[in-house]
Amino acid sequence: MLCCLLCWVNASLAAQDVLPSWNDGAARQHIVDFVKKVTTTGSSDFVPAEQRIAVFDNDGTLWAEQPIYFQFFFVIDQVKAQSPQHPEWKTTEPFKSALAGDLKGVAASGEKGIAQLMAATHAGMTTEQFARNVNAWMSTARHPETHRVFTEMVYQPMLELVHYLRDNGFKTYIVSGGGQDFMRAWATAVYGIPPEQIIGSQGELKFELRDGKPVLMKEAKVALIDDGPGKPVGIERFIGRKPIFAFGNSDGDQQMLEWTASGDGARFAGLVHHTDAAREWAYDRQSPVGKLDKALDEATAKGWTVVDMQKDWKAVFPAEQK
Amino acid sequence: MLCCLLCWVNASLAAQDVLPSWNDGAARQHIVDFVKKVTTTGSSDFVPAEQRIAVFDNDGTLWAEQPIYFQFFFVIDQVKAQSPQHPEWKTTEPFKSALAGDLKGVAASGEKGIAQLMAATHAGMTTEQFARNVNAWMSTARHPETHRVFTEMVYQPMLELVHYLRDNGFKTYIVSGGGQDFMRAWATAVYGIPPEQIIGSQGELKFELRDGKPVLMKEAKVALIDDGPGKPVGIERFIGRKPIFAFGNSDGDQQMLEWTASGDGARFAGLVHHTDAAREWAYDRQSPVGKLDKALDEATAKGWTVVDMQKDWKAVFPAEQK
């Protein structure tokens, strides 16, 4: 009797503990129902642990992405830090605009300009040096509007979701258009996701011996753009099986959600909809960053789970937790 | 007292159970000593479980590779199977030689010829169709000399090593010059290594919707040659941390071993030396397949562990187990 009572109390506590920053609502319920059915032995929807693959976009899904992708703040700060060694940058685009913090000027330089900025800040150094650069920047740089360090701009409800899935035997992956090496430098500590489960856009690497010591040099040549149709490619190449759970927030995630949803058996496809101008930002179909248009229509048509950030989340950032 | 006796008996049994197909000798001892020191809490060489990354070459390290890489038998058999739809192949190289089983003729067609054969057999189909082709072939094709199915030509002592490492908290990876999709089709069942831990040479993939259903098409364009200096590249890209344990058998593994050995703390670098003409094949510095020359010199110079297949292994293939 005491035992039963203890079980009941524990079960009740456990139910309360799950996803505490999520309001009761359809989105939270879809998640909990899905996890329950794929983890219940004997259920027709049961999925063995090794096949419980969950993939998450990063920018706009696990952390914020306004007014521009945070990796771009890193690019601009690295250009500024290197500028004393490059006096010609003061008069040469796209560096001139980057040094002035003129994002429109940078955008005007087009893909070629972006590639030049990436080459100057993400290539021509060893993987170890790059990781040191990212970590040094991440420990001091602050968001221009919230004045928080960027690792504090992750979404508390999504952190809880990632942990909840892991507690239920899921293997959690990041599958992001952002830079793989950029994310791996900090995301393991922040999300508890190991480097081998962080997939992103990536450049070519070159093995070299320097003073007899092997290094990997980062080259200014793209190996994979892990965005849009590149996401299922990254998933197949790195994971080699179809996820059963995927979460994104933009049209760049549409093919990842389609790929996930196309498998047999129970599947979960979710979108974070940025609806909260007071606590975060409100944007979707017209936004140059994190545009959510076609994927929102497909979510409606196919019954994917759409999280209304304003209604579904009690807190947005960890600092707001009660 | 009974408890102590049980502990002692269990420990003795466990020691006997470890690597039973390995003869007592320096190679076996190096392995056991290494595993013991990196897994003993409080040891100065202790390595936390999440950093216990072990990488294995496949061809010549986990399974045999003579007289040619087994994947090439698959290529030839696929060309034969497709030849009724390609009457022009009877008179066009490299297909003419492939259809005749004339390996020298195929080799004479050079890299361009090999690329044409790979394109005809490894591209222009979905990833799912390719996996079906590999599995169908693997269940029936037999080695021309041993007449065994190819999955029976794995090395029993290496199977035991992979399991021994896993039992000690290691995460075991294949890092092979062979085709990633080719290996993933069968290697999980044979080695117990999941697809996401099988890294190999790979082509580009393209996401497409076919009748509204998403597929990934295999393209005839190389994305990574995971051999030689490409192995550390594959390791960094897929795993994102340096292994502490690596096993290979040829010069194609040299940079993987260098990369592994270059890390701080305890490291293990091993080579399988094919010395057993009676039970397997004997070859090294002059062999066109699995050439072991520079890496053997480096192993000697640096004290890497070299397995003498004839002396160190009680059995080579699973069928020979006592």
UniProtKB/TrEMBL annotation, chains A, B:
InterPro entries listed in its UniProt record: HAD-like_SerB (IPR050582), HAD-like_sf (IPR036412), HAD_sf (IPR023214)
Spans traversing the lipid bilayer: none
Superkingdom of this protein's organism: Bacteria
Record's signal peptide: none
SUPFAM superfamilies in the cross-refs: HAD-like
Protein name: Haloacid dehalogenase
Entries under Pfam families matching the protein: HAD (PF12710)
